[in-house]
Design brief:
The structure holds two protein chains of two kinds. Chain A has helices at residues 20-31, 45-55, 69-82, 101-106, 119-131; strands at residues 7-11, 35-38, 59-64, 89-94, 109-113. Chain A is an alpha/beta fold. Chain A has a single domain (7-131), classed as Cobalamin-binding domain (Rossmann fold). In chain A, helix 2 crosses helix 3. The longest helix of chain A is centred in the middle third of the chain and has 14 residues, at 69-82. The two termini of chain A are 21 Å apart. Chain B is α/β, with parallel strands linked by helices. Chain B has three domains: 1-37, no CATH class; 40-256, Rossmann fold, CATH 3.40.50.300; 273-314, no CATH class. Helices cover 44% and strands 13% of the residues of chain B. In chain B, strands 4-2-5-1-6-7-8 form a seven-stranded parallel beta sheet, with helices on both faces. The mean pLDDT of chain B is 90. Classes of the chains: A alpha/beta, B alpha/beta. The interface between A and B is medium-sized, with 33 and 31 residues.
Amino acid sequence: MTERKIRVLIAKPGLDGHDRGAKVVARALRDAGMEVIYTGLRQTPEMIAEAALQEDVDIVGLSILSGAHMTLVPRVLELLKANGQEQVKVFVGGIIPDEDVPHLKGIGVTGVYGPGAFTEVIAADIRKIVLG
Amino acid sequence: MTLSSSVLSGDRLALARLLTQVENGTPVGRRALDELFAHAGKAHRIGVTGAPGTGKSSLVNQLARYYRHPPDGADPCRVAVVAVDPTSPFTGGAILGDRVRMRDLAGDPGVFIRSMATRGSLGGLAAATTAVVQVFDAAGFDVILIETVGAGQAEVDIARLAHTTLVVEAPGLGDDIQALKAGILEIADVLVVNKSDQPGADTAERILRNMLELGHPVNSERIWLPPILCTVATEGRGVPDLAAAIIRHREFLQLTGGWQVRERFLLQAELETILHAALVARWREGISEEEYHRILTELVERRISPYQAVERLLS
């Protein structure tokens, strides 16, 4: 019972309704032995930060296909910090143009995964980031 | 400041972190539980169980909303939700998806939702659910809604944790023979036919009513007859009546002394669970890994029976 379980929040902020990618990642992380809290579509950054706090997760995965990532991602990071959860990591999946990736990583995003990314890689990255 | 004193002062981040410690059974969590125990014992623990897809999460969402916005101008209760989903027996992973139905509760500081995976327990709850509920109770939540995993027939652990147990049914799940069987229907203090706008709802209600009438004495005033409530959780239909039935059950328990009886029963159940685990752990310390596997091998080779193996292990 004392074994360390990785807890991941998978959330879809913003208004687009395509959650297949989020579900694929949630399923893959489940199969990698993690506890995945899935919150569903159309979450505001406030809802995501609140869920991350209540669930005391290690890492948050944001799936964004709407193009609003340059607004939504910094806002989630800001709210996590405001809640005292600066240790919680954030990764991003979806449709993210290459030129935006350095900026996202610069503000603290641990990984950006587009179409064709291997779920094994995502799981391995998370394990490395959380367990060190 | 210790974690438990931060929790008592209303610090939500400390509460979230303590729940993790408690769930993982760490020494920090254990110590905090000892410190918090005297502060618990005030909350009304309401269990919500039933088959997968009957609408448990949606009902929990609606009930929590109701307690946060009571229609009669009463003070809103502080509500905690503990939602349990199954752990994969193959990978140890889990999808905890009950929050999807509880979006209405977001942004309300009087609500705290925590998802838990069963981590190998089979009775519909996780081994640490009791302890997590204890922490919420001590933290001052008035109502604690405990949602079990989608339960079939025999997952009845919730009756050892809740004061009031709701068993949620939906139309089309079985005939009168299913309703006659022992198990989950026996633990219901309140029966709910959810999705009651769907075809077959009146049949489902009638089957449950017939089942109740077969078993209960008709002329006793001191016996609680589980009421049957019809709801449409996605729209909130029937929820005020359901909330009223839950309050009537609490009042019945308080009036008849049943509350104290249940408290004693719940604590005894918890004591015995912890005692079992502690005894096994203590015994395990006293026996070497080699010895254990030697006896296991003899068992596998059918040289001794399982009973003989246990006798050897305990001697």
